[in-house]
From TrEMBL:
The chain crosses the membrane at residues 164-189. It comes from Cyprinus carpio. SUPFAM superfamilies: GroEL equatorial domain-like (SSF48592). Residues 207-233 are annotated as: Disordered. The keyword Transmembrane applies. This is Chaperonin containing TCP1, subunit 8 (theta). One of its GO terms (molecular function) is ATP binding.
Amino acid sequence: MSSHSFLFLDKEDGAISTLVIRGSTDNLMDDIERAIDDGVNSFKVLDARLCPGAGATEIELAKHITSYGESCPGLEQYAIKKYAEAFEVLPRALAENSGVKGNELISKLYAAHHEGNKNAGFDIEGRGKEAGILDPYLVKHWGIKLATNAAITVLRVDQVSFTIMWLFFKFLIPFMFINLGALLACYFLDYNVMCICQIIMAKPAGGPKAPKQQGHWDKDGWDEEPDKFDTHH
């Protein structure tokens, strides 16, 4: 091929195949390589399992997670229920994009799932699973896992804010109360609080002195040096 020599060895059965890509430019070869890679990955199904689509899987997961949250004592149940509520986003988006009220659809889906219809999802024609609306299991699995990790990463930012607030209450607030206590002590001991404040704030700022003002332009000798102006009559 071209100026290169190749040696081909035939084998009856083998799990490895080689594809030779040829093109006039590197960009064209890159496009062909990406197209072949997409086709091979689409054909090669890593997991043949499927799950009901149209929001049925999300509603079923939300139902079980909510049930688990209700069995948990303390404040943990509220976080668990909010996590379950996040699964309602997908069927709600499908409904609102189709002109259907999201709240009504979510209520109907929950009612259907509580009755045992685990495959109940949103479909305009009302066929659901019978219409072949299915999602790959791996896509659903990794989508939920990655979204959960992203949410946890964002929520961890609050720990930094908590640290800042802890430093604020540990150092700044006591300092403010010390100053307030000193002023109250001066008040009850009949000290002049305003005098103390003036003493504290009366220290002038440093810096070079302002230059002396020159003579007025309308007077004789205004453009001379100040000492000469003072002696000029």
